[in-house]
Amino acid sequence: METPVSFPTDLRRRLVAALASVALIAPAGLALAQQPGDPQRRPTPQQQQQQRPQAKPPATKPAAKPPAKTESMTPSQIGIPTLAKQAFMVDPMTGAVLLSKDADRSMPPSSMSKMMTVYILFEELAAGRVKLDTRFKVSERARKMGGSRMFLEITSEPTVEELIRGIIIQSGNDACVVVAEALSGTEDAFAERMTKRGREMGMQRSVFKNSSGWPAEGQFTTARDLAVLSWRTIEDFPRQYRYYAEPEWAYNNIRQENRNRLLRTTPGTDGLKTGHTDEGGYGIAVSTQRDGRRLVLVVNGLASMNERASESHRLIEWAFREFTNTVLFKAGDVVTEAPVWLGRSDKVPLRITRSAIVTSPVGQAAQPRVVARFEGPLAAPVAKGTRVGTVAITLADGRVFEHPLEVGEDVPRLGTFGRIGVLARHYLLGWLS
């Protein structure tokens, strides 16, 4: 049974004022399908800033008219031009992709891969196999690590909490090796665990060869994969995620600042991790939350720390300024009513189980089509909380969002005489009685 849903007056007014569909926003879900391939000749980032190439429509459907405030992009891109070689920005609450540039092109993970090392360490904490005050030994190999360091000594035995801060805030390569050897015996074994765990969470284009992101042959990731890892860290470990927001920390009498400058320059930023290699340039996976709305951005291939900070800040401010989220239904809202057969009530409310939210450009408005789908009438008795169908929300550009529907209240079955009366009316007069 399909039931078109009519919105109440206040909700209709709210939707008409705020909801929009736009071809530049991708369908829901972080593990999204790839964007169309790059043209043979791509403009440089500087050329992208100076010109607006016209996007070619897909062969299967006509091109959608871009919104007035959003720049047209080449087929491999979504959003505005950026100096980054790779970029991906998503609103994880709605799955809307606001920015994509070569998001599935392989790139060195650099120190951003340390997020996976920390993620696995958080899993060990959650499972109770280690505690924050558990101490790990420092090997000679760990102590000799170059690059950014926590400055561990061979005689020191840092706690798990110290290592977490050493990896996140100080980007310590030595701390990563200590964690890898403690959890898996060798760093090679730990890297295999990182790759396997990444595959399980949807990072299909990432291979890790070490725990720190130190340059290694055959090690690569993508901007999209790092966005998946960023969101899983936030979603799976909300209490431990707080370490990513700490601005500085001292160990061994050496105080170091968090390399994520956006913690200080961009309101609402609370993570995650920077990275740099000579081959891949400067990158960052960053998350910013304002007024209950969160954005996750990954950029890479920038020329300097200053450019990384300024470009990331610019892209985040653009996204918060140009897009907004609209709540179609809150979790628990009644979407429609279903008929009930042989129940003490002849109908029952159907409620949505989680909030239905869409991301849309500011100032663009459109009425969605909302259809409730369920097998009806429902046979009594009907128990509250029973899932009986879905509500499909279709936007003008063809995007469809589906959410489960469940019964909103108990409906007991009629007694013997009540059932006899209903059956008699049914067979004598039909359903029109």
Quick structural summary:
The chain is of the alpha+beta class and about 425 residues long. Helix content is about 25%, strand content about 25%. A hairpin with a 2-residue loop joins strand 8 (about 280-290) and strand 9.
Write up what this structure looks like:
The protein has eleven helices and 17 strands. The chain is an alpha+beta fold and 433 residues long. The protein has two domains: 110-323, DD-peptidase/beta-lactamase superfamily (Beta-lactamase), CATH 3.40.710.10; 330-429, Peptidoglycan synthesis regulatory factor (PBP3), Domain 2 (Sandwich), CATH 2.60.410. α6 (173-184) packs across α7 (187-200).
Strand order of the largest sheet: 1-14-16-17-12-11-15
Q: How would you characterize the largest beta sheet?
A: 7 strands, mixed
CATH class of the largest domain: Alpha Beta
Give unreliable regions as ranges. Answer: 7-75
Average pLDDT over all residues: 83
Helix content: 25-40%
Total number of helices: 11
Q: Please count the beta strands (DSSP E, at least 2 residues each).
A: 17
Structural class: alpha+beta
Instruction: State the CATH architecture of the largest domain.
Output: 3-Layer(aba) Sandwich
Shape summary: elongated
